[in-house]
Amino acid sequence: MNRIGFVGLGNMGMPMSKGLMKDGYEVIGYDLNDKAMVAFHKAGGKIAKNTIELAKQSELVFTSLPSTKAAEAVYLGEDGLLEHCADTTTLVDTSTIAPEMNQKIAEAAKEKGIPFLAAPVSGGVVGAENQTLTVMVGGPKGVYEHVLPVLNVIGGNVFFVNEQIDSGTTVKLINNLLIGFYTAGVSEALHIANKKNIDLDYLFDMMNVSYGQSRIYDRNYNTFIAKNDYRPGFAMKLLLKDLGFAMEVADANELDLPISKALHELYTTVVDEEGYAEKDMAALYERVKLQSEQKEAAK
Ligand SMILES: NC(=O)c1ccc[n+]([C@@H]2O[C@H](COP(=O)([O-])OP(=O)(O)OC[C@H]3O[C@@H](n4cnc5c(N)ncnc54)[C@H](O)[C@@H]3O)[C@@H](O)[C@H]2O)c1
């Protein structure tokens, strides 16, 4: 398994594929975005003209795609991976997409005898760059064991959840539901501190040795809020996508989750109506501040 294909060379796919190259794998990449292809080529990767060419040349293919629709096109489309790769090629989707699409792809892969895993990741761009991602894998255990040496290259913490294809996605959605909670909590808590003239750096130091500490507080504050720079990172629209999937799982299982529902509504408004889609999720703090200032000004 020396020749690896990588479809989707974005914020996550690019550093993941670079990590594979660093560890001596030959990586063949494809992305719809020409700029990403040029950057990938500069980093030492081989460019494929399309997914057909990539499928034919790879023994293992990873995908890192922004949406369920993109995954459907890349796996199930006419030019897609399942149509054009050999049954000796293993496919691993690291995107976070709708659990039903994990199942749809797995069924189509099974019909063609092509090994497939749904293996979403957590740890962000930094984790991808440092090859320390958490990888949450669902699918056949034998396939997992076969590709484990390569999964260990992209991730520092690789977990096999169970043989249900969407089990890794369920764990990932739980993770992102918690991220949504913490991000909203940090935003509102820091707003109180601001109002009460408490220095935010000093607050961080105090919370850092108290139970109010969290990895999301650390990330959102130190990397984004303290620098007043909200380039993603993890774009707010991607968090909303994952919260939407978590709510679909909740609805399908008739779970009553009032706080999660309120959070989903909040992020929907922020993304769809207030222009925060492309900003890092930490920008929710900016929005909380702005809304409160607008309310005060209207008094
Ligand atoms: N950014 C993060 O911190 C993070 C962390 C963990 C997981 N994820 C998940 O990883 C996935 C990718 O996230 P990202 O932040 O890298 O997104 P991104 O938008 O930066 O990258 C996605 C890339 O896929 C390409 N693409 C889209 N459709 C394509 C197609 N049909 N064929 C080829 N390329 C196509 C895009 O051009 C883009 O370069 C998402 O599912 C996201 O939820 C992201």
UniProtKB/TrEMBL annotation:
<dbReference type="InterPro" id="IPR008927">
    <property type="entry name" value="6-PGluconate_DH-like_C_sf"/>
</dbReference>
<keyword id="KW-0520">NAD</keyword>
<protein>
    <submittedName>
        <fullName>NAD(P)-dependent oxidoreductase</fullName>
        <ecNumber>1.1.-.-</ecNumber>
    </submittedName>
</protein>
<comment type="similarity">
    <text>Belongs to the HIBADH-related family.</text>
</comment>
<feature type="domain" description="6-phosphogluconate dehydrogenase NADP-binding">
    <location>
        <begin position="3"/>
        <end position="160"/>
    </location>
</feature>
<dbReference type="InterPro" id="IPR036291">
    <property type="entry name" value="NAD(P)-bd_dom_sf"/>
</dbReference>
<keyword id="KW-0560">Oxidoreductase</keyword>
<dbReference type="InterPro" id="IPR013328">
    <property type="entry name" value="6PGD_dom2"/>
</dbReference>
<dbReference type="Pfam" id="PF03446">
    <property type="entry name" value="NAD_binding_2"/>
</dbReference>
<dbReference type="InterPro" id="IPR029154">
    <property type="entry name" value="HIBADH-like_NADP-bd"/>
</dbReference>
<feature type="domain" description="3-hydroxyisobutyrate dehydrogenase-like NAD-binding">
    <location>
        <begin position="167"/>
        <end position="286"/>
    </location>
</feature>
<dbReference type="Pfam" id="PF14833">
    <property type="entry name" value="NAD_binding_11"/>
</dbReference>
<dbReference type="InterPro" id="IPR006115">
    <property type="entry name" value="6PGDH_NADP-bd"/>
</dbReference>
<dbReference type="GO" id="GO:0016491">
    <property type="term" value="F:oxidoreductase activity"/>
</dbReference>
<dbReference type="InterPro" id="IPR015815">
    <property type="entry name" value="HIBADH-related"/>
</dbReference>
